[in-house]
Amino acid sequence: MKCRISAAIAMLLLMALSIGSCKKDDGAQTPVSDTEAQTISQEDAAAEGEYDDITEMGLAAGADLQTGAVDNGRIATDGNTARIRIDLFVNLALKLGPCVTITAEPNDTTFPKTVTVNYGDGCICRDGKLRKGKVILNFAAPIRKSGAVLTITLQDYYVNRAHIEGVKTITNLSANGAVKYSVKISGGKVAWPNGRGFTYEGTKTVTQIEGAATATCADDVYSTEVNTTIKYANGINVTKNSETPLIKAVACHWIAKGKLKITINNRVLYVDFGTTADCDDSALLIWANGQVGITLP
């Protein structure tokens, strides 16, 4: 995945929740304090980031499967059996660290195929985070093939002290040379040792709308549609839905166009990124009785 906007969306929750907490409670919903608003936004951003990392791990492994079958320009073989060279999993290895074990079964060029990323009892990765457990990637077909499905399951998976669960299903919807894929999270759950945590469900569809005709990624532009729900045990529910697709260019740090709806229990807010796709850090936060200009993180 060349562009990720989930973390930026999650950080917007701090502003949205803070404004929402200042509004009058209707008595039928759980109030959200400023402290709780900040905690929720930070937890949401962290969880979104980790789930996105898992997606990128799967896409990197998919790209490496093709490379790993090639040795000096030929299909690598053991005798007459085509095999996968795990040492050629460069994209995946760069995202993980030297202490991770990667296996492929069957270790040949056929599909379906299962790639297991095993962090063991603990591995400090290149991003400085401590991970343990397994990420299991089940490829029904080469992920670059239109219609291919990748199912990712987590087995006793921890990032630092957070226990992360759930199943991710990535479906390649690409056509006519343009990248498009959907990502679905089911049974998502994040829990910390202090007892905090939430359930997480959602879908995202990412479509390349510019740059498909060139080899460089600098001119790529992506459209993302989002629909996610977080539920806390204390009664706070947060949903995020794209009213119109969120447009982000690889060359721009911010989402430049589109409208995001954020619902906190029964409170509804909107983040309007604009309609012109100009690259700037400004947006409009809108609620029932007002609006305010905001600077994007």
UniProtKB/TrEMBL annotation:
<keyword id="KW-0732">Signal</keyword>
<protein>
    <recommendedName>
        <fullName>Lipoprotein</fullName>
    </recommendedName>
</protein>
<feature type="signal peptide">
    <location>
        <begin position="1"/>
        <end position="23"/>
    </location>
</feature>
